[in-house]
């Protein structure tokens, strides 16, 4: 869309499909979209959480015409993604949603040398495949039906960079970016827009889960983070979509990394991105240097940790 | 850095996955010529046999240990077992360097991919490298061994374009893993490197062009590729210069420096110049690529029509045909 005719995307009256919509960012998006007058469909695995989520979404109803639906499915495979899409489009006469928001993915940080095959595979399932299968199912159907729409991928600051502890998670989040960047280019064939939201730490049930396995050194490096609420993140995401940005971030740290890894991805505003680029060029090496020092300083403690667990003599 | 010795392959055990063809084979031959013990790993026994012959022709000393191991690198257990077998041939010692060259590309339109082709794409780009990296890291740490893990990604891990939905995600994922491990393996005496080549004229490249969409070929038509020997030489040089990210050409360096995030630069002054060039040139490049895609719309619609894409009723997985929706 040429920039001079940009119409701000508005959720009102649109069918928005949110995967991972029963908790965390997904739930915050679902309730925000409902409050803005959208039809909302949510998909997740657990029925109980879906039922609780539907109550919260219902509480935001603006008009009796709004259609809210939920469906329980395992989105880690193509079959689940297709079944979920069938279910949520049924009440819309089979028409594809106007926008899909691909939230999902609990992280399980741990040391690489303590990771099993299952840990790494699971990280990719939860952090990448749950988004890829739904994106694939929806894209095919949008193209079959000749319909336009928006696909919003959700990755993480850890899709732009990484550090100790994130070997099962960061690759998956980088992969999401890879798919988003490919599709931003490819789906120009069909007038389907692609966006990528990279949130930083959010106060969600997922965050509580992740801290269970997180190595101490990882927590130490992250101690300066100030987690935001999923509602704040949802608002930032929707603003970015309305502004027509391909890559969207909700916090300054991620903004700096977005600018520093932009490559050939579209920029937001030339002057603003120039300033960010310059700031990032100076700031990110300092951050990395400090982080590397902390990891090196952690060596003796880590050696003790490995011996305790029998991973080293 | 000024006083550290250049890493010398002579006498070192180098484990090269994908070592029977393309970049991997060229690297295996180069390392043999430099006096290393080389283990090559791939699936096809026949190709491994031929590769060993080529490596034998470069043998420098009678003590060099040149071996091949056949396995499916996409399988975590097989990848582990192959590494164990290679270590056994060296008195149980871990390799000094792991070069993860295994990988293939099968481009295509996203809407024409199947579940199988998308999974295979991830297997052949990411898991082919990750499983061996996992096995190697665990072994090196257990034995308190010093070593290097060298990933081979692609310029399509810095950016992506139409046709690569089954390929780029895996290559981006390799970068994510390399970034994590560069940081994490500072806990041990293990270095991490990652190579981002563009086109390499190899058997893999010929295969890739069989499925590559025309519009993708057109976008890439001005790209200059490298021969496997050239790519291998650049890769080894980059490892010896202690570069983390290694790019073999101008385009690669422009993308490397403009997507660096928190990645260390190789040479601050030169990299800054690359970044400046990219800052101006890349938006223009992207605009031309987007234009090519948009101009392809009509032809693509006809292509899909020809292949019966629109003839299929919108059938859900529950089997029944849904009402024909309006456009």
Task: Please characterize this protein's 3D structure.
- Chain A: InterPro entries: KDSR-like, NAD(P)-bd_dom_sf, SDR_fam.
- Chain A: Its main location: endoplasmic reticulum.
- The complex is a heterodimer of chains A (313) and B (327).
- Chain A is an alpha/beta fold and 313 residues long.
- Chain A has one domain: 3-Layer(aba) Sandwich (Rossmann fold), CATH 3.40.50.720.
- Chain A has helices at 24-35, 47-58, 78-90, 117-145, 170-186, 205-213, 216-221, 230-242, 252-260, 270-297, 299-308, and strands at residues 15-19, 39-44, 68-72, 99-102, 149-154, 192-198, 247-249.
- Chain A has a 7-stranded parallel β-sheet, sandwiched between helices.
- In chain A, helix 1 (24-35) packs across helix 8 (230-242) and helix 3 (78-90) packs across helix 4.
- The relative contact order of chain A is 0.11.
- Chain B is α/β, with parallel strands linked by helices and 327 residues long.
- Chain B has one domain (13-315): Rossmann fold (3-Layer(aba) Sandwich), CATH 3.40.50.
- Chain B has helices at residues 22-33, 45-56, 76-88, 115-142, 168-184, 203-211, 214-220, 228-240, 250-258, 268-295, 297-306, and strands at residues 13-17, 37-42, 66-70, 97-100, 147-152, 190-195, 245-246.
- A 7-stranded parallel β-sheet of chain B has the order 3-2-1-4-5-6-7, sandwiched between helices.
- In chain B, helix 4 (115-142) links the parallel strand 4 and strand 5 (147-152).
- In chain B, helix 9 crosses helix 10 (268-295).
- Chain B is globular.
- Chain B starts with 12 loop residues before the first strand and ends in a 21-residue tail after the last helix.
- Residues 314-327 of chain B have low confidence and may be disordered.
- Chains A and B meet through helix 3, helix 4, helix 5, helix 10 and helix 11 of A and helix 4, helix 5, helix 10 and helix 11 of B.
